User: What shape does this take?
Amino acid sequence: MNGPLSGIKVVELAIWVAGPATGAVLADWGADVIKIEEPQAGDPVRGMTIRSAHDPNVRVAWSFELDNRNKRSVAVNLRHPEGRAFALRIIERADVFVTNLRLDALERLGLDYKHLAELNPRLVYATLNGYGHRGPERLRPGFDYAAGWARSGLMATVAEPGKAPPAQRPGMIDHPAGLAMAGAISAALVARERTGRGQEVRTSLFGVALWMNSVDLTHALIGDRAPAPESRRKRPNPLWNSYRCKDGRWVYFVMVQSDRYWKDFCSALEQPAWLQDKRFEDHASRTIKNRALIRLIEQVIATRTLDEWAPIFDRHCFVWAPVQSVPEVIDDPQAKALGTFAALDHPQIPNCRLVRSPIEFSQGEVGPRTAAPELGQHTEEVAQELGLDWEQIGDLKAKGALG
Assistant: This one.
């Protein structure tokens, strides 16, 4: 592997999604990522399985496969003194330590930044949690549904007014957080080249979600009022809205500069009379009469299917997109052109494909290469790299220090 992080050694002590997603991105970029797992069950995500499409008798941990490709798994009992000592030997030789365990748990294990920086001054210590590393809620548990989607204002902002808050899909905050953390780790590694010392890098699901919602939050901070949720039937700019086609599929227009597109929009929809209608003569007028215009656009869009409309919209250079389902995205020719769905050999999943992390480099190969490891699959291999012989490894296993 000759990715940009080739030669960088990462120790990951992380579970669920955001921490492992960080490790997955680093591994995609070429780092050697060793995942430390509890010997009995490992990362809880291992237990979240679905039936294989190729063999209904085989169950696969789909989320674990996504966020743990390219890694090596070491089963270590961190509560056993010799198990903890074994983990510290790995960390002592590492460039990066990634964790999303709660801060109090790390302190109890002696794996907080203070202790590991004394052990390895060059270590980049990357820690991600629910609500941040300061303040009264620094120890509060939180998945991305709560700490990110709900707490940050995103859930309320995208809801239809008066309707129940919408649910997100799994990992929608976790994965951006993992990508952000991977970027921060890379910056810290660059800084280490100048200073010779590592540092602690921190982020949280709450903080990442606040950044994702930063346009509306800044509007509220600087403007005279906070943005309110908008019904699609009352959008101020009718050319920035969703509409349903004849076949039930939806399109989304994003013509933010509506005056720029108005003439072509009327032409594409074959509505020259709209150009003469004083209610719609400019952006300000259309904002006032937005509901009336939205109803008219709805009626026209409903006369043709999405496949009929698509070439018309493209011919007029609209900023638009179809609202796609997951199966449609998987077959999207542009996603295929980007190589988004990478194939890899998997012992249980024929024709296995995973989503690539979205960063490309002009030099080096990046992306999924190997399947997610079995629990403890590389324990002996890593132990030998540390200089242990088979007798010592067997002794640690017998004592319960290693799995």
About this structure: The longest strand covers residues 32-37.
